[in-house]
Structure formats: C-alpha cells, structure tokens
Design a protein that fits this description.
Blueprint: E1 4-13, E2 16-26, E3 31-35, H1 42-50, E4 57-62, E5 65-66, H2 72-78, E6 79-82, H3 94-99, H4 114-126, H5 142-156, E7 160-164, H6 172-185, E8 191-195, H7 199-205, E9 208-213, E10 216-221, H8 223-226, H9 229-236, E11 238-245, E12 248-256
Parallel strand pairs: 3-8, 3-9, 6-7, 7-8
Antiparallel strand pairs: 1-2, 1-4, 4-5, 9-10, 11-12
C-alpha cells in the first residue's frame, strides 16, 4: 500500500495545466526522486501531494485514504514538508522552531513533554545545530536556517517526507550528510518524495526516479533506466553520457544539443 500517491492529478493555474494527469506512488521504505527541468511541474506536484494545493482533477491519497478526509492535525503528523527556502516571520529561536514540529502531537495549550524535548535534542544534534539552539532563526545563514527546518521535520516523525530541493542552500558536506542521514534512518514505514536538482545526487540516493516535463510524467523507474542518454537529450536538451559508478551514476556532459 503506497504511503502517498496521486491518481490522474491535474492542476491548472492561469489557464495552463502545470500538472497534467499525473499518476504516481511512493511506497513504504522507498525514496522517490522527482527530476526535470525548471517549470516541469515538480514543485507544483509536491504542493498538491501535501494538500497546500487542491487538484482541479484527480485525487491525492495518503495511506489509501483521500487527502481531504484527513484532519489538519492527522495530516501534520504524517506529512513533513521541507521547502527550498523556508521563511519564518517571527524571531523564534532554533529550539523553539524545531519544537513546533511536535505541535501536532499536543492539544491546544498543552505543554510539551520530556519526550518532545528529547526528540528536539536528537534532531538538533543530527543536523549539527545544537550550538545554535538559542539563536534567533532570522539571524542564521541560509544553510543554518535550512538545517533548522530539516530538524523541525525530523521531530514530526512523519511517514511521508515531501522535500522540495531541501539542500539547495546547504554546503556540499551538509547536503550529502543530510541525504545520507535521512536514508539511513528512514524506516520501512516511511516514504520520501524529493525534488532534486542535482541528477547525480538523485541517482545516488533515490530508489526510483520520476522524470517530469511540461507538467507530465515522461517516465519512472530505476535511476539507470531514467537517466539515459535519450531521456537527457529529450528533456534537458543536453548531450550527456551516463556512466555507472559503485554508488550510482556519473554524467559526462558533452554539451548542449546542436539543435538547441
């Protein structure tokens, strides 16, 4: 049974189908990487999977239950969303921001418990920001702030991770270490759906890739079956040769297509 899925989902904005009859599913224990050029509908698909956007046609399902049938609290316990450039309007400290990830488990005005604080400490340590716990979030660098939001997602203990280029502002060591950490701690009940700009990184960590272009699914499958020379030419307009490595694929980019 998929953790999260879409069935013939269409989203229309400004008269254009930015997500066009997309069907997909992420199974328990699976890491699904969503790739494609800018404007291909990747972020729009994630917004629809999270419930932020309502599809104009089709249905999003969470654990085989239509998304609108879940209460906001139930949905917040099961879905963690990390955006590319999260924004916080208040001067929360890092600890306060991360602790908010436990809010779906507490009633209105109910105090956080020792267990909640233990989750927070573990997440701060995992993201290497324990030393920033008392800093105001707006005072952080872009990379530090992103790690704070990743820690907030960790304490939600979700079953569905929806990540929209979450490492875009991270230095390469934190980018790699976050994906590696999430991959190692991912349980057999959790699914990750991650929009990833770096195709080699996607190939290294994803079990399966979903390639999108112009709002549609071009193909889905194992990284070696999706990142082919033909697909790279068709969707990215680039002449590139995929070379298998012990940990995934390396793309030897020869240049743009002559017809581009």
């Amino acid at each position: 049974m998929p953790v999260v899925s879409a069935r013939s989902v269409t989203v229309v904005r400004g008269g254009a189908r930015i997500v066009d009859a997309v069907s997909m599913a992420a199974d328990p224990g699976e890491w699904l990487g969503v790739i494609g050029p800018n404007g291909s509908g990747k972020t729009s698909l994630l917004r629809t999977l999270s419930g932020s956007w309502t599809p104009d046609a089709g249905t999003v399902w969470l654990h085989e239950k239509a998304l609108p049938e879940w209460s906001d609290r139930e949905r917040a316990r099961r879905i963690a969303v990390v955006k590319q450039a999260p924004y916080v309007a208040f001067d929360f400290t890092v600890r306060e921001l991360v602790t908010l990830g436990r809010a779906p488990y507490r009633g209105w005005m109910q105090a956080f418990t020792a267990d909640d604080h233990e989750h927070v400490q573990s997440a701060l340590a995992a993201m290497d920001i324990a030393h920033l716990a008392d800093r105001a979030v707006p005072s952080l660098s872009g990379g530090e702030r992103q790690r704070a939001f990743l820690a907030q997602a960790l304490v939600q203990t979700p079953t569905a991770w929806l990540l929209d280029e979450p490492t875009a502002h991270l230095d390469i060591q934190y980018c790699f270490s976050f994906f590696q950490y999430l991959k190692q701690r991912q349980s057999a009940q959790e699914a990750v759906v991650a929009v990833v700009h770096d195709l080699e990184l996607a190939a290294r960590f994803a079990d399966r890739l979903l390639l999108m272009d112009e709002g549609r699914v071009v193909t889905t499958g194992a990284p070696r079956d999706v990142l082919t020379r033909n697909h790279l030419a068709q969707v990215f307009d680039v002449d590139a040769t995929p070379e298998p490595t012990p940990h995934g694929l390396r793309l030897q980019v020869n240049g743009p297509l002559a017809s581009s």
